[in-house]
Amino acid sequence: MTRFRHSREACPRPDRGAGIQGNHPRRLWTPAFAGVTALETFYRGIILNTTAFKLNGDQIAGIGLGPWAEEIKMIPSIQECFDLMDKYHMLENIKAHSVVVARVTCLIAQGLREAEVDISVEMAIAAALMHDIGKTASLKSGQDHSEIGRQICLENHLDEIAPIVAEHVRLRSYTLNGDYSEKEIVYYSDKRVNHDKIVNLDERLAYILGRYGRNQEQLSQAIKRNFSLCEEVQEKLFKKLKFSPESLSVTVDGFTGFPLTAGFEG
What is the pLDDT of residue 65? Predict the structure, then answer.
């Protein structure tokens, strides 16, 4: 079943004017898939179930979503992520890498949830599985695979995870003392996985420098700055976790919370 959720980001307050009666500046969201059979979303502490979901924004507002209607986005299931990997011809080694990144992401996201941090485990896992979806096209075109991945997500109406995929290589906005986010988790998890093996940041940095920064001093410096930022992200994340960065590999090996699906081999 396709899952929907409302974004916790920028949900407008009723007193700011929204929905059908107000003058909310952003358009109400219209679902892209006419064949979706159910809508499940948390709204004011209840679950709304709507069968044969073929409603436009006005109709959604009419059944009670009001100003939150535009915030409904789609998060793909794990199986849908694997289907998209096949659709965009993801290479097997990249798929194996993505699965391990998703394992690390799931562990960290669930750990943060246990620490009462407002994180969507489902969204983080989906973004981790999809983070290299643009890699095959990038190998052919030479373009930025994170930007190609963002475009692929948008083309498939995966609005919630598109920004995470876009920033999995480099975080464009980040504050050490700011809110925790799914994009930080995926960004960090990707830096801890070399091919399909969990490594420390120094090992991953050495590999990236050897592959991409050789004889390119300016690029090498940019890569090093990026990993310095990743060290800050690591410090932030592990303040809330019950295990250490050094024990990540062992913890992931013993972790049984990753949801299995057809197409997954671990």
Answer: 45
| β-bridge pairing 72-75 and 46-51 | unpaired
| C-alpha dihedral (127, 241, 115, 97), degrees to nearest 10 | 20
Whole-number CA gyration radius for the chain: 19
- Cα–Cα distance between 212 and 214 in angstroms, integer? 6
Q: Among the CATH numbers 3.30.1370, 1.10.3210, 1.10.533, 1.20.58, which is that of 78-253?
A: 1.10.3210
Q: What is the DSSP letter of 118?
A: -
Distance from C-alpha of 157 to C-alpha of 113, rounded to nearest angstrom: 26
CA–CA distance, 182 with 57 (Å, rounded to integer): 27
Q: What stretch(es) of the chain map to CATH 1.10.3210?
A: 78-253
Helix (H) or strand (E) holding 48, with range, is strand 46-51
DSSP 85-109: HHHTT--HHHHHHHHHHHHHHHHHH
Do 19 and 69 touch, CB atoms closer than 8 A? yes
Residue 249, H or E segment: helix 248-253
Question: Which residue spans within 66-219 are E strands per DSSP?
Answer: 72-75, 193-194, 197-198
More confident residue, 191 or 54: 191
Average pLDDT over residues 256-262: 65
Structural tokens at position 265: 């081999």
Q: Indicate if the pLDDT at residue 69 is higher than 80.
A: no
